[in-house]
């Protein structure tokens, strides 16, 4: 890709924006609509990052070196999980750089692990900062105008696969984006060897009773798909709600993508109780 036309990105217009999603939107207002994958490295270099290094790292996904007032910064990201994960790492570290309330570690740097790159909790300071950096990264790499067509579709893993290709992001990031922004009550679960690595759920999706390290239920389509030992994506099918949740919901649908080495991505889609009907029964 050639040089960008937005040569005058202004950090002053981004100052005092502490909400990560608002901050990402403010960056895109300066850039204008894009019809291609977001050039995250060029954006970082125009917003005060003076150097971006990409190399294979062990036990670390990204590092931001900067000072307390964020006069400039340098980013180092891991290439060991592929170029799309590295792009997310650059966006994540840029989030730390632009979110001025983020506090540097004792080493005078932000050092982010793979767990940090998946953080969504907001309670403790470290987890909150990592969750905000992730929210900014998603907002930067998946601008609203490019996300909207995917939100109009019914939830399907194929939407995440297409989003991955068109926006040059990882399948993991694409699935998380669908879960976070889709109007339907959906969730995504990642497993390896039949054991849950982690899960994310939309705001309206019921609580998932199985936790990291638990084996998937034999009632789930994920268990059946793994038993067939073939890669590929299943259709969306109804499964017993008890396969994933103890919530009393009318229907639960599940779709699974079986990848290499026992890795799976599971998409869950719930039908929620009709609140109005429930209220009528209570009256």
Automatic annotation (TrEMBL):
InterPro entries: IrrE_HExxH (IPR010359), Rad_response_metalloprotease (IPR052345)
Gene3D superfamilies: 1.10.10.2910
Segments forming domain IrrE N-terminal-like: 72-176
Identification of the protein by name: ImmA/IrrE family metallo-endopeptidase
Pfam families: Peptidase_M78
Coiled coil: none
Domain of life: Bacteria
Organism: Pseudotabrizicola sediminis
């Amino acid at each position: 890709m050639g040089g960008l036309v937005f040569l005058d990105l202004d950090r002053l217009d981004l100052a005092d924006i502490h909400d990560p999603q608002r901050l990402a939107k403010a960056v895109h207002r300066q850039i204008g609509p894009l019809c291609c994958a977001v050039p995250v490295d060029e954006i970082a270099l125009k917003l005060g990052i003076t150097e971006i290094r990409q190399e294979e790292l062990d036990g670390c996904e990204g590092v931001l070196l900067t000072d307390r007032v964020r006069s400039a910064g340098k980013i180092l990201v891991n290439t060991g999980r592929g170029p799309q994960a590295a792009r997310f790492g650059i966006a994540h570290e840029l989030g730390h750089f632009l979110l001025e309330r983020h506090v540097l570690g004792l080493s005078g740097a932000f050092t982010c692990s793979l767990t940090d790159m998946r953080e969504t909790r907001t309670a403790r300071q470290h987890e909150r900062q990592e969750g905000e950096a992730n929210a900014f990264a998603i907002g930067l790499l998946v601008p609203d105008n490019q996300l909207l067509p995917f939100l109009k579709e019914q939830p399907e893993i194929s939407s995440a696969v297409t989003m991955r290709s068109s926006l040059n992001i990882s399948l993991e990031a694409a699935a998380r984006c669908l879960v976070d922004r889709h109007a339907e009550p959906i969730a995504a679960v990642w497993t390896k060897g039949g054991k849950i690595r982690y899960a994310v759920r939309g705001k309206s999706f019921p609580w998932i009773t199985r936790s990291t390290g638990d084996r998937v239920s034999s009632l789930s389509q994920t268990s059946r798909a793994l038993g067939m030992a073939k890669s590929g994506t299943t259709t969306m099918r109804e499964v017993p709600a008890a396969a994933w949740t103890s919530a009393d919901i009318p229907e639960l649908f599940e779709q699974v993508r079986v990848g290499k080495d026992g890795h799976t991505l599971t998409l869950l889609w719930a039908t929620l109780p009709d609140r109005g009907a429930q209220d009528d029964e209570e009256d």
